[in-house]
Amino acid sequence: xxxxxxxxEGLCDGKAPLSKNEHYLPRALGNFQNNEPLVDRICDSxxxxxxxxxxxxxxNSSEAFFREMVGRVGxxxxxxxxxFYEPTHGIPPLGVLGKYPGHDFEILWELVPDPANPGxxxxxxxxxxxxxxxxxxxxxxxxxRRGMWTAERIREIAKGRGxxxxxxxxxxxxxxxxxxxxxxxxxxxxxxxxRDVAPLVAGVEMDGEMRAPISEPYLRAVAKVGFHYFLKxxxxxxxxxxxxDKIKRYIYAGKAERGIVRPLNEPFLRDLQQxxxxxxxxxxxxxxxxxxxxxxxxxQFFAGPEVDPIVWSVVFTETPSHHHQTTGHVFVYxxxxxxxxxxxxxxxxPLPT
Length: 353
Hints:
Layout: E1 32-33, H1 44-59, H2 62-70, E2 95-99, E3 106-113, E4 121-125, E5 128-132, E6 139-143, H3 151-160, E7 167-171, H4 175-188, E8 208-211, H5 216-233, H6 245-253, E9 261-264, E10 283-291, E11 294-303, E12 311-317, E13 325-338, E14 341-347
Parallel strand pairs: 1-14
Antiparallel strand pairs: 2-3, 2-8, 3-4, 5-6, 5-7, 9-12, 10-11, 10-13, 11-12, 13-14
């Protein structure tokens, strides 16, 4: 069977070998016992196209933040990346905003290992420059990486955001960063007076807001997960017929004549319909079905004890299907990695309606 993306015309040329190890659920989310990859359905060339979408999915999304919360998932040999400082394919890094205790303005925070509780994460102020207008009405927070900023570039960004920047706050997490920040603040506010800000007391509670973009590459990655999951568990379908052209064009090139990926305002599981109901462990939920209404996959990433994330619907086709089938799986994280596995895959059994 050829690569599923050879149709419609203009996507895959069909020349690359078929992959023996396509992870429909991105491997960066963990290694799950009992899980099986998609074999001989996607070529290596198309897998590379999908991997760029997954790069955005795991580094510039709410899932990227949850990966940090869960910790230890993904390939350990791959180079690490700071989701709070580094952009991905031109998309700005994640922002976690919260007021600095004792002050009225917000700063950027990041998740770091908690030294008092091994294996858990806590919030700490990022290395950053905070520009504040004289009346305090406009604020600009800039993640700081050494060698990244010049005073001219900071002024340009501040002007575009309407921040005059009469006050500049520098938060450095190393002496080297402090030295470089000092040169920048002296250039930005040459007549400014320095004053110390009280250090953060460990264990203080605060309200914060995590801001993550829902970008086109992110939504295409969600569509890829749903479609490749469908190909894995619905072998009755080759995926080559015209009814799948729209979903494949969208994954490959971002082109869509209708909404492909849609948020649902309903729980994934019937057991979670009660307000405030949560899973007691972190998990990913995937399902797909063929019915008289068409073919659809549903996905919820990082459902767990602390959050109730978006349930995504991926609509392949709205044309009634003659083959009726429903399947679902849950990918549950262990409390601690076990024998090289981050969790285990289990079946979801549909209940009678």
